[in-house]
Amino acid sequence: TGVANNLVTMGIYKNGVMSIQALQQNVSGTFYINSVAGLIYMNGTTDYAELYTYTASGITAGAATNTIFSGSLVRSA
Fold first, then answer.
1. Which residues share a beta bridge with 53?
2. Measured CA distances, 5 to 8, 18, 29, 52, 64 (Å)
3. Model pTM greater than 0.85?
4. Quick count: other Cβ atoms within 10 Å of Cβ 20?
């Protein structure tokens, strides 16, 4: 994907298509945090969301790695 050896990027996909992409983060050392957030309209029946992250080959994970993905229903009253 053309990401340099010290970058991490992630995005939220709706129905297999990227909807929101986080800025690529320049990583130094073995500790990094990256996040992405946004509001995506979904039809309530067939739409689905996924989170993808890409870590370049020059980055090694430390002793602890965590990935958290959460969502909320937002609608009018």
1. 10
2. 9, 22, 12, 18, 20
3. no
4. 16
